[in-house]
Amino acid sequence: MCGRFALDDHVNSSITDFVTSTGRHHNEWSSDWQGRWNIKPTQDIVLIRDSEKDDEIRVETARWSLVPPWSETLTPRFPTFNARSEGIATKATWKKPLKANRCIIPASGYYEWTGEKGAKQPWWIHPEQGILGFAGLYSWWQDRSRPDDDPNRWVLTATILTMPTVDELASIHDRNPLTLPEDLWEHWMDRSIVGDQKLVDEAVRAGRDESSALLFHKVSPFKAGDDSIALTEPLNSL
Question: What are 37-79's pLDDT values in tens digits?
Fold first, then answer.
């Protein structure tokens, strides 16, 4: 699973470089993301997606926890910040956004924990350089309690796909986020491709190599409200 991750402010230039490399039109990304080191579900994250209306790449903030359009509230009764890749095309919550609403969720790295409750050891898992691109799904949720002309009536929400862990990370957790190489980001987002289990399985195979190359080390335990780059420092260096 992936229940905490980080996104530093280098994402601004990384996203600009990626979008520019596609040669496609894109929305005006404000490039003002402030680095955060302890992002949790329901908080804002950044996502990259194809526009529903034209051949444009869009970079936007979204609420981390996908809310299906048919949900009566912004907080479903079950967790939706992660989506298991296995059998995803048959699940009611995921099968519709899988068809066309796929996105990339950038991250600097993420955390997992080992050990027993009350004495859990956090680990920082990250690439040697650059940013990660998690395979994600997104959905628009309509707050019908707001007027039609209220800009907050529509809420963009998203989830991160997970996959069975790779051998290199198995001692930390039995699952890890589905991380795609940058040369597959556009393919994953492409709305002209109807998303199905085959597409997800292909992504998982590509994600295994990406996850196998990640670095990891122990970090000091931290609280839910902590937010500093110090959270990622190796335990033995503090």
Answer: 999 999 999 999 998 887 889 999 999 999 999 998 998 889 9
The one-letter amino acid code at 226 reads D
Residue 169, both tokens: 């990370």
How far apart CA 28 and CA 41 sit, in angstroms, is: 26
Strand extents, DSSP E, the chain: 5-7, 25-26, 36-39, 44-50, 56-64, 82-84, 102-107, 109-114, 121-126, 132-142, 154-164, 175-177, 215-218
**How far is the C-alpha of 190 from the C-alpha of 23, rounded, in Å?**
15
C-beta separation of 18 from 48 below 8 A: yes
Domains and CATH numbers, the chain: 5-237 (3.90.1680.10)
Rounded Cα–Cα distance for residues 112 and 120 (Å): 10
Instruction: Give the integer Cα–Cα distance in Å for 84 and 90.
Output: 11
